[in-house]
Amino acid sequence: MVLYGKLSTEFDIKTSADKFYKLIATELHQVQKHCERVRYTKLHEGEDWHDTDTIKHWTYVIDGEVQTCYESIEEIDEQKKRNTYKLFGGDIGKHYKTFKLILQVITKANGTAAAKWTVEFEKINEDILPPNGWMELLGKNTRDIDAHLSKARVVL
């Protein structure tokens, strides 16, 4: 069995790529208000949610179980609308040596948009299953955020 792995999935979104990425890039602290399965978020270290030196603590639900982890931003590429997050500790640390989430928000040729999530991981041993529950969580969160942003009205 393989210890290293990569899972990737892409979700079409109704919201523009710019608007969706803006929420992730500048309003990440609001995600628990929009995502049913994100229970609690807080800054663990640092002062700015979107700084690479900040560590956040997350509580979320995967496969019906409440889980926790810590997260830091590893890389931000605003031009490509691509962020890489390193997850560690908590329930992640029980199963994986390394765990990264990569989000890229894409504008498609036909003018629609998509959120592409990639999970890169290294399991602590061969008995650990791939993080398929994470793919389901990311899909649900993407749909929740998209629904919120689709309903949001612009105030001038």
**Into which percentage range does the β-strand content fall?**
35-45%
Number of domains: 1
- The CATH class, by name, is Alpha Beta
The CATH topology name reads: Alpha-D-Glucose-1,6-Bisphosphate, Chain A, domain 4
β-strand number: 7
- Taking pLDDT < 50 over at least 5 consecutive residues as the criterion, the unreliable ranges are none
Radius of gyration: 15 Å
What is the CA-CA span between the terminal residues?
A: 56 Å
Order of helices and strands: EHHEEEEHEEH
Protein structure class: alpha+beta
Helix content, binned percent: 25-40%
Oligomer status: single chain
- The CATH superfamily name is START domain
What is the number of helices? 4
The assigned CATH architecture is 2-Layer Sandwich
Largest sheet: 7 strands, antiparallel
- Write out the strand line-up for the largest beta sheet, numbering strands in chain order: 1-7-6-5-4-3-2
Average pLDDT: 92
Q: What coarse outline follows from CA principal-axis ratios?
A: globular
What's this model, at a glance?
With 156 residues, the chain is α+β, with helices and mostly antiparallel strands. It has helices spanning 17-26, 31-34, 90-95, 132-151; strands at 4-13, 38-45, 55-62, 65-77, 82-88, 96-107, 113-123. Residues 2-152 form the Bet v I/Major latex protein domain.
